[in-house]
Structures are given as structure tokens and as C-alpha cells.
Design brief:
α5 packs across α6. This protein has about 230 residues and is mainly α. The protein contains twelve helices and no strands.
Length: about 230
């Protein structure tokens, strides 16, 4: 029993040390990024774009599709969703492929605005601090708009406006469910899911988006099937 307690204490000490190191690395990484350019300036660079699309100008189908596939608890958690991380790990293991990520929409905005797309541990730790800063200073709807306006949709299109006009020749507010669900799935891997790269893979990703929308009650199974079956 005494040995067990000693081992437990040692493990706790190790965890505390590792957590402290992670905190220092993450905070330092984020602080260095802010020295190059403050967060408010990074946000203003996106919101001041000529074709910036506000949350109120996004179609409901697109909002629902994106939340369903990327972060279905978006309005219920803070900057980081530990439940979502655990769920993503389970889904990916169960399906044998990378279908979901554990990052929240806020974390993805942090990556788009503050850091590079490079998946390194120190960048990921810094991303946590940037995400908390975003949630502290901006509303959920504002952060959502920052995400769709800063994401890459493939084929040279940055932001939902350019993607909507480029792929469908219409403004985002006019996207129908078929189009909205297609675009909602692209930023996950633009080099793979962009319609101009591989339509079969794009449709497979879209089906995943539509099924997520059904799972979380945004559309009926019949609505999803009508699009999935038509595209096959």
C-alpha cells in the first residue's frame, strides 16, 4: 500500500512538471506571436476585407453544416472541448480513418490567424492560449465568422465569399443545402476535398457532413439521402 502511494505521488509530480512545461511553452509561443502582431490587428485584417461575410449574412444550412461536422458543441463549451477531443479519437478509431478532429472552431481560428498550419506540439500548445484569448474578447458568432472568412477552400479560394463565388457563382447567402454542405466539408482538407480536385472524395466528405447534420437534428434523413443519392 505504501509503495502504491509513493508511485501515485511520483506520477502526480511528473504530471505537474509536464503540465508546467507545457504551460510555459504554450504561453511563450503565443506571446512571441503577439509581439509580431497583436491579436486585434490580426482580427481586423480579416474583418476589413472587402468581401468579409458577417455571421448574419451566412445561410442557416451552411452554419448548421459547419457546426455539425466541425464542432457540434460549439455553443456549449469554451475555447477547448475536451469531450470533443475524446469523441474524435473514438470515432476515428472506430471508423479506421481520420474523419473528425478534436480542435474546436475557436482553436482553428487561432491557427488561421496566429499560427501556421504546421502540426507541431509547441504550435498546438500556443494555439490553446490564442483560443482562450479569442473567446475572452469576441462572441461565438464573431469567432464563427472569423473562421469561415479565414479558411482555405482549395483552388486558390480563401474565405467563404471567394469559395461560394468561385465554385457556384453565387454569394454565400444564396447557397442551398447541397452547396452549403459541400463547402462545409472542404476546409478539413482542401487539397483532397475541393470539388475541383476529386469530386468523388468531395462527395464522400459531403455525405459525412450531411449525416452529421442528421445526427444532430438539423435535417431529416430524407433530405440527406436526396442529395447523397443524386450525387452517386
Amino acid at each position: 500500500m505504501k509503495i502504491f502511494k509513493k508511485v501515485l505521488i511520483i506520477l502526480l509530480i511528473v504530471l505537474l512538471v509536464l503540465a508546467s512545461i507545457a504551460f510555459i511553452i504554450g504561453f511563450s509561443n503565443y506571446s512571441n506571436a503577439l509581439k509580431e502582431k497583436p491579436l486585434i490587428e490580426r482580427v481586423e485584417e480579416v474583418t476589413s476585407k472587402e468581401n468579409f461575410v458577417s455571421f448574419d449574412d451566412l445561410p442557416e444550412d451552411y452554419i448548421n453544416a459547419l457546426i455539425a461536422v466541425e464542432d457540434h458543441r460549439y455553443y456549449d463549451h469554451g475555447a477547448v472541448d475536451f469531450i470533443g477531443i475524446a469523441r474524435a479519437i473514438w470515432v476515428n478509431i472506430k471508423n479506421g480513418e481520420l474523419q473528425e478532429g478534436g480542435s474546436t472552431i475557436t482553436q482553428q481560428v487561432a491557427k488561421n490567424l496566429v499560427f501556421t498550419q504546421e502540426e507541431t506540439l509547441d504550435r498546438k500548445l500556443g494555439e490553446f492560449f490564442a483560443a482562450y484569448d479569442l473567446e475572452k474578447n469576441y462572441s461565438k458568432n464573431e469567432i464563427f465568422a472569423l473562421y469561415v472568412n479565414s479558411s482555405y477552400f482549395g483552388d486558390g479560394y480563401y474565405g467563404i465569399y471567394d469559395a461560394s463565388m468561385g465554385y457556384y457563382n453565387k454569394e454565400p447567402k444564396d447557397l442551398n443545402l447541397d452547396e452549403a454542405s459541400m463547402l462545409a466539408g472542404v476546409p478539413n482538407a482542401p487539397s483532397v476535398y475541393a470539388p475541383t480536385v476529386n469530386m468523388n472524395l468531395a462527395r464522400k466528405r459531403q455525405a459525412h457532413v450531411l449525416n452529421a447534420m442528421v445526427e444532430y437534428g438539423y435535417i431529416s434523413q430524407d433530405e440527406a439521402d436526396s442529395i447523397i443519392n443524386t450525387s452517386e
